[in-house]
Description:
The protein is built from 6 helices and 5 strands; from the N terminus they run βαβαβααβαβα. The protein is of the alpha/beta class. Strands 2-1-3-4-5 form a 5-stranded parallel β-sheet, sandwiched between helices. The longest helix is centred in the last third of the chain and has 17 residues, at 116-132. The two termini are 16 Å apart.
Amino acid sequence: xxxxxxxxxxxxxxxxxxxxxxxxxxxxxxxxxxxxxxxxxxxxxxxxxxxxxxxxxxxxxxxxxxxxxxxxxxxxxxxxxxxxxxxxxxxxxxxxxxxxxxxxxxxxxxxxxxxxxxxxxxxxxxxxxxxxx
Length: 133
């Protein structure tokens, strides 16, 4: 399983990766310090190879999480049964939570830091995603 972590904070990359590995999370974990950098990696391969999970921060300079999701909107149908995006943020803004619930590509809204219960939820949802295909 391929997983992307998109966050502008190196400490969050370290903590999230460490938490995933401690939970015996399967597959490869790739970190990006910007949403634009992640898009450059993702878009050329979007029809053939996408990560199954993306942990996405909302508040980043240059391109925020909402702009990243908007950039993926034209590819929504290719991604729906292949990739789940989890908002991983410190934001408690109810508007952010409501917007995430309206985005089909978003599998959940997780408050930082990532914990074992959230990892289990993610793995269960990814497993169910493949059962529906």
